[in-house]
Specification:
The chain is of the alpha/beta class. It contains nine helices and seven strands, in the order αααααβααββααββββ. The chain has two domains: 1-54, no CATH class; 121-273, Nuclear Transport Factor 2, Chain: A (Roll), CATH 3.10.450.
């Protein structure tokens, strides 16, 4: 929901309070056609709970699927047939569980782009060269170093189903907005979109935005089997970035699939994006 995004990016407590007040006024209208009561606005996190209540069915199923995959990689399991509020609780609990305690000082929102990004938390079994490649990419991407990040991409890249890159023909990647299937694109064409994005946002602002995805939200894991539905081949290495809030539709903000080329270089061959 747009209001949730506005709340989380609000520059001040006063603006957050204003967003909450606006959402509270709209609750009766939003819940008029639902068979569940609105959340208790006197409890913290009620706006996120409303997001799960109101998200479309396909988005709810996608959120459940993504959370189940993430939990299984951590040797945990998500019960089936959860209600929307049970899924909201599970997503929050999982987010807290994977967030390690940090003793680092909190960086201000205007932290300089030169501040190095934390490397992804790598699961056991990740190839060391793949780990180095993913770390190099994430460091450059997080700092807004476009030229360095671009070197990680293969000549052909698969945009995975559901990615925001598929939803807007104005980006120039595809002629329609079909997000239901994976689609291939020239790496240079995708990087052209990234170049415009980086330039329009600016290096410092980009770095401050990506800094929100701190420890516990950026992970690296190895595909133990081939899964064509997820665009994976056995031994691919996947960099996954999850949203601090769980997001309004999917827990996953970004997923990059690294694959070893015949020449021995680990490159990004597939991508999902939903910031």
């Amino acid at each position: 929901m747009k209001l949730l995004q506005e709340f989380e990016t609000a520059p001040s407590a006063d603006r957050q309070a204003s967003v909450l007040a606006e959402a509270q006024k709209k609750l009766p209208q939003w819940y008029a056609a639902l068979d569940v009561a609105p959340p208790d606005v006197h409890k913290s996190g009620w706006l996120k709970l409303a997001v799960y209540d109101l998200m479309p069915d396909d988005a709810f199923q996608a959120a459940a699927f993504t959370l189940r995959q993430s939990m299984e990689r951590m040797d945990s399991h998500l019960p089936v047939n959860l209600t929307r509020r049970e899924l909201s609780d599970a997503a929050q609990a999982f987010s807290e569980a994977v967030r390690p305690p940090s003793t680092r000082p909190v960086q201000p929102a205007s932290a300089p782009a030169s501040a190095p990004a934390d490397p992804p938390a790598a699961a056991a079994g990740v190839d060391s060269a793949a780990k180095d490649a993913a770390n190099d990419f994430w460091r450059a991407f997080a700092m807004g170093e476009f030229q360095t990040a671009a070197k990680s991409y293969a000549p052909k890249v698969t945009i995975l189903a559901g990615s925001q890159w598929l939803s807007d023909p104005r980006l120039g990647l595809f002629d329609d907005s079909d997000t239901t299937k994976d689609r291939d694109v020239d790496g240079d064409k995708l990087l052209g979109v990234y170049r415009k994005l980086f330039d329009s946002v600016g290096k410092d602002r980009w770095a401050a935005t990506i800094a929100k995805f701190g420890p516990g939200h950026v992970t690296l894991w190895r595909a133990e089997t081939t899964d064509k539905s997820a665009g994976l081949q056995k031994d691919d290495v996947v960099l996954t970035v999850t949203k601090p809030s769980g997001g309004s539709s999917s827990l996953t903000a970004m997923k990059l699939v690294f694959r070893k080329s015949p020449a021995g270089k680990w490159q990004v061959v597939a991508e999902y994006m939903d910031f």
